[in-house]
Design brief:
The chain is built from five helices and five strands; from the N terminus they run E-H-E-H-E-H-E-H-H-E. The protein is α/β, with parallel strands linked by helices.
């Protein structure tokens, strides 16, 4: 059974560095990369039925666009490099869902890139990295 490395991937430069780190681990250990893209979404909105229907439609479009634009080319790149890859796209809280994905897929590690957030921004808005290391069921690597 191949070890799985969940990589939080959003197409950013820091996500790319995280992916490259995970690729090296996967190659060395014969593992699989799980490209996980989470579209932030809060369920705490009070919307009319029409607004909910429109939001659901936009959500499907965003997921299809993310799979095609962000993950499609990266998944092909990994496949061409001989690294097994799985793609997971979800809506919700990034840290919570990365933890859930890791648990569901029996991953051995979660890898994310660090965004250049100031200490003040992290205190006000929170940090995916901070939340992830607090809640993760597996070891996490935060790639600078």
């Amino acid at each position: 059974m191949s070890e799985k490395f969940v990589v939080g991937y959003d197409g950013s430069v820091s996500a790319r560095r995280a992916l490259e780190f995970a690729m090296n681990r996967a190659r060395a250990q014969g593992g699989t990369i799980v490209l996980a893209h989470v579209l932030e979404w809060s369920p705490y909105s009070f919307l009319t039925p029409t607004e909910l229907e429109e939001r659901h439609k936009r959500r499907k479009e965003e997921m299809a666009r993310a799979e095609q634009q962000i993950l499609g080319s990266v998944a092909r790149e990994l496949q061409e490099a001989g690294i097994p890859v799985e793609v997971v796209i979800r809506y919700g809280n990034t840290a919570d869902l990365l933890c859930k994905i890791a648990s569901e897929l029996d991953a051995v590690q979660i890898v994310i890139g660090r965004e250049g957030q100031s200490a003040l921004e992290a205190r006000i808005f929170g940090s995916v990295a901070g939340a992830l290391v607090q809640a993760s069921p597996v070891p996490c690597t935060i790639v600078p």
